[in-house]
Write a sequence for this structure.
């Protein structure tokens, strides 16, 4: 008896969704062969999925966002696929594409080699601040939040480097949690306990949203006691000593410095791809793929990338609803061709939705954003996202796979790119 494995690296938004898709729409239709079984294996450092989207609120207060709303056990979510699903708590450390094997270091320190028939890379990204990345397990990230909450209790000045959605959401959540909810008509708190400053390198915040939305965000931030400095970069942030309560000196590009009790780096992200061969990566260390089929063409047959570590995407969970069915349909096509020896079927193509789209809660009752190119009123941003950071709306379907109950309609596309590039699909 041998097992052919669809191996998924990463068990977060993209990895869990890919595994559900494979169990629902791929495994059941693979050719039946004597002595061969099929299986989906997910490798992830933590046993628990982390709802990163709510990170800014939990950083501000665990009363507003309790830990049990943030973490969800991965393995039980696949109980419906008994015998066909396998979870490995660990980290991929190396991929041997010639031998089609991934080396994994398990959480207990054991080394494992896992052979794959098809490989899905969904290892996402890490943030410069430890507040928004689960590197090992739930307990470690909870400890990070605990330490941050005790720092916040005594802080008078908080500086946030960066002015993307994470920085703006964080500024709003922190400022409201420490300075209190402003009155209905208030434009700023009377006696703010903490001064929160957002440092924007550009002349506006929120790069993918229009300037008027950024202005509205600035007004909402001001209401809770957060201000924005524009056209300025953080050059460095250094701690005066190793003492827990030591001040940070934040050096800015205009020559000024700010003394801060807390500095949070919310500038950019780093793809988790350092275990992959350099030739598979683009110049931003994302996994380079065919932007239509999501095949990693430098990696040999049956390797795909989904989620924020892929070169095809500007990122975000919503984009994965378009990308995952594409990558997984093409995986199925290639795997069936490989196992049956038949000519592969047509490709499915990914189309990026580049419309102005982003929701940014600011505190627990306001927010800015746009959907499908249309600016949304604050109350809608609150209703969709700010209320609970979409936990009620999305977590259940994500964890139990109902989001991918159907594989979605698609138009078969001729097989062009791979053939032209001389890469193997089957
Ligand atoms: C604070 C914050 C708020 C956000 N809010 C929103 C939002 O409102 N809407 C939205 O669309 N997007 C939002 N995003 C972006 C969203 O979180 C990402 O799009 C999403 O996390 C990407 O999912 P992913 O599965 O590709 O990667 P990740 O979520 O980064 O997951 C990657 C997984 O792979 C694991 N991993 C890493 N290395 C290895 C390895 N070597 N082997 C095995 N596993 C590994 C990681 O531990 C992790 O579990 C937000 C991001 C942040 C930081």
């Amino acid at each position: 008896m041998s097992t052919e494995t669809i191996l998924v690296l990463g068990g977060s938004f993209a990895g869990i969704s890919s595994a559900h898709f494979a169990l629902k729409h791929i495994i059941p239709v693979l050719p039946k062969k004597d002595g061969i079984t099929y299986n989906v294996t997910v490798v992830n450092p933590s046993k628990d999925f982390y709802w990163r989207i709510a990170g800014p609120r939990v950083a501000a207060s665990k009363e507003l966002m309790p830990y049990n709303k943030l973490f969800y056990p991965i393995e039980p979510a696949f109980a419906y696929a008994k015998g066909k699903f396998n979870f490995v708590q660990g980290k991929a450390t190396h991929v041997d594409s010639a031998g089609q094997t991934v080396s994994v270091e398990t959480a207990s320190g054991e080394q494992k080699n896992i052979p794959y028939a098809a490989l899905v890379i969904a290892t996402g990204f890490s943030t410069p601040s430890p507040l928004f990345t689960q590197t090992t397990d739930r307990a470690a990230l909870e400890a990070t939040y605990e330490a941050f909450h005790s720092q916040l209790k005594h802080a008078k000045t908080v500086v946030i480097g960066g002015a993307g959605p994470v920085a703006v959401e964080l500024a709003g959540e922190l400022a409201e949690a420490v300075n209190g909810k402003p009155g209905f008509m208030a434009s700023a708190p009377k006696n703010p306990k903490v001064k929160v400053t957002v440092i924007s390198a550009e002349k506006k915040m929120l790069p993918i949203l229009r300037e008027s939305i950024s202005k509205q965000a600035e007004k909402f931030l001001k209401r809770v006691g957060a201000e924005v400095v524009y056209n300025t970069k953080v050059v460095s942030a250094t701690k005066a000593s190793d003492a827990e309560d030591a001040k940070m000196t934040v050096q800015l590009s205009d020559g000024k410095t700010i003394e801060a009790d807390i500095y949070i780096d919310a500038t950019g992200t780093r793809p988790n791809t350092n275990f992959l061969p350099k030739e598979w990566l683009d110049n931003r260390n994302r996994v380079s793929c065919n932007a239509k089929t999501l095949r990693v063409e430098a990696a040999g047959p049956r390797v795909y990338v989904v989620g924020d570590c892929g070169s095809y995407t500007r990122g975000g969970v919503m984009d994965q609803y378009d990308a995952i069915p594409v990558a997984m349909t093409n995986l199925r096509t290639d795997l069936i061709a490989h196992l049956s020896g038949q000519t592969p079927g047509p490709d499915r193509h990914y189309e990026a939705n580049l419309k102005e789209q982003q929701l940014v809660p600011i505190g627990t009752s306001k927010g800015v954003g746009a959907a499908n190119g249309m600016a949304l009123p604050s109350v809608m941003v609150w209703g969709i996202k700010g209320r609970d950071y979409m936990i009620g709306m999305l977590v259940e379907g994500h964890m139990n796979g109902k989001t991918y109950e159907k594989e979605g309609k698609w138009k078969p596309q001729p097989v062009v790119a791979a053939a032209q590039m001389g890469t193997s699909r089957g």
Q: What stands out?
A: The two ends are 23 Å apart (CA to CA). The chain has nine helices and 21 strands. The chain has two domains: 2-127+269-349+410-421, 155-265.
